[in-house]
Specification:
Blueprint: E1 6-7, H1 21-39, H2 59-71, H3 76-97, H4 102-126, H5 133-146, H6 151-169, H7 192-216, H8 218-229, H9 240-265, H10 273-311, H11 325-334, H12 336-351, H13 364-387, H14 393-403, E2 410-411
Antiparallel strand pairs: 1-2
Helix pairs in contact: 1-3, 1-10, 1-11, 1-12, 1-13, 2-9, 2-13, 3-4, 3-5, 3-8, 3-10, 4-5, 4-7, 4-14, 5-7, 6-8, 6-10, 9-10, 11-13, 12-13
Length: about 425
């Protein structure tokens, strides 16, 4: 007896076969950038200049400052935000293709973003005051509202949100700017109890400020929605000329635009508060182009490989199957929530004053090395889970809360056999 093929119901998450490699590879690589970008927030007991870099860094510190300032700062987070919005748009489209009505799809997406914000709130209180998941949960609510608007409206919203985005991120260029949310001066954050109390107060303040911060990130989210409407990252082989232009044009804006603030952060270009703020705005604005360029670059390379696989009659019907470092990045990207949380689970106790205290008086080269090592450990976990055919534990929990327990697959109709 032949078993009929099955198709997932409209409430089921995307299967592995439905996933395109490009978004996963980009997301997995972006997490390395996030580890590097977050690493400097764990430095304490040092005088900090622009971009939160110590003013008296060593030669190794300066080399790391240049590399991270040119390629990572204000580039990794816009990329991750773009991919968040892209993923929500793809989920909405796939649910519609499976026959789910829009109200059901909207409810599913709202549950997903609210639970993501809940993850962020717990993460913020227990470990990391610079958590981004709470903001992403609130940003997701705005993204859901924008999924079905006209493209002209989408562009207008993204353009208007660009001003608060630049104003918010311009602070990065100010000498002596705070490297995290302010906490009361009478709390001793060098103890685990004092640090926990400080993070709880930060979490309480985020109830008010996070919606404003979510508004700040609308511009990169709109870029993700525009890409998703064309399926650019899902079918990169069909968009190679566009991807090439976005990658090369974005990098041509991003790298030169980062240079002034990088020079200030390594104390080559002296700046005051106003000058540093202006450089921070330029750095953030060109960083949007950099985040878009990196997503396009990954998709361009994946698309070229898929195109070659199609010409050569490769596996998966012409779809390129990631291998080597690509497969590692894709495994991390498919488990991005787990790997993001693992970064804090590893880095914070090692670097925080209330933990091992490695970040007290540390330089950027050292904390960057810890960040890279942390990413490598999370990548190892992701690869082991991939080989076992398992999702990350955070993804499993999120899907359980969003979709509920898996329902039996719905049998697909089987065509009658031709007469003998």
């Amino acid at each position: 007896m032949t078993t009929a093929p099955t198709t997932p119901g409209p409430g089921a998450p995307l299967s592995g076969a439905e996933r395109s490699p490009a978004p996963d590879v980009a997301r997995g690589t972006a997490l390395l950038g996030i580890a590097l970008a977050n690493s400097v927030s764990h430095i304490s007991a040092r005088e900090l200049g622009p971009s939160f870099r110590p003013v008296d860094g060593s030669s190794a510190d300066r080399a790391v400052d240049v590399a991270v300032g040119l390629l990572v700062d204000n580039r990794a987070f816009p990329l991750f935000t773009l991919l968040l919005a892209y993923g929500l748009a793809v989920t909405a489209r796939r649910q519609g293709e499976r026959g789910a009505p829009w109200p059901r799809t909207r409810s599913l997406l709202l549950r997903r973003t609210l639970w993501l914000g809940a993850f962020g709130l717990v993460h913020l209180v227990l470990l990391f005051e610079n958590d981004i998941l709470l903001v992403y949960g609130l940003l997701g609510l705005a993204v859901v509202l924008l999924l079905r608007v006209r493209e002209r409206t989408l562009v207008l919203v993204g353009s208007l949100a660009l001003l608060p985005y630049l104003a918010y991120n311009g602070v990065d260029g100010m000498p002596g700017a705070l490297s995290g949310p302010p906490v009361p001066l009478d709390l001793d954050t060098h103890t685990s109890t004092g640090a926990l109390a400080a993070r709880a107060l930060v979490a309480a303040s985020y109830v008010v400020t996070a919606p404003l911060v979510a508004l700040v990130f609308l511009s990169p989210a709109v870029l993700g929605l525009l890409l998703a409407r064309r399926g650019v990252l899902e079918h990169p082989a069909e968009h190679l000329p566009l991807l090439r232009r976005l990658a090369l044009g974005g990098l041509a804006l991003s790298v030169p635009g980062a240079v002034p603030l990088v020079l200030a952060s390594v104390q080559v270009l002296p700046v005051g508060v106003a000058g540093g703020y202006a450089l921070g705005i330029v750095h953030a604005g060109t960083g949007l182009a950099g985040g878009l360029a990196f997503a396009a670059l990954v998709a361009w390379l994946v698309g070229a490989r898929e195109q070659r696989a199609g010409r050569e009659g490769g596996r998966a019907g012409g779809r390129w199957v990631p291998a080597g470092a690509w497969r590692v990045a894709a495994a991390v990207g498919q488990r991005s929530l787990t790997c993001y949380l693992l970064q804090s689970i590893v880095m914070v106790p090692l670097l925080a004053p209330w933990g091992a205290g490695w970040g007290v008086g540390a330089g950027t080269a050292f904390v960057a090395a810890v960040g890279v090592g942390t990413y490598a450990s999370s990548a190892l976990v992701a690869v082991l889970l991939e080989r076992a055919g398992r999702s990350g534990p955070a993804e499993v929990l999120l899907r359980r809360w969003v979709y509920g327990r898996p329902a039996p697959a719905v049998p697909a109709p089987v065509a009658p056999a031709p007469p003998a």
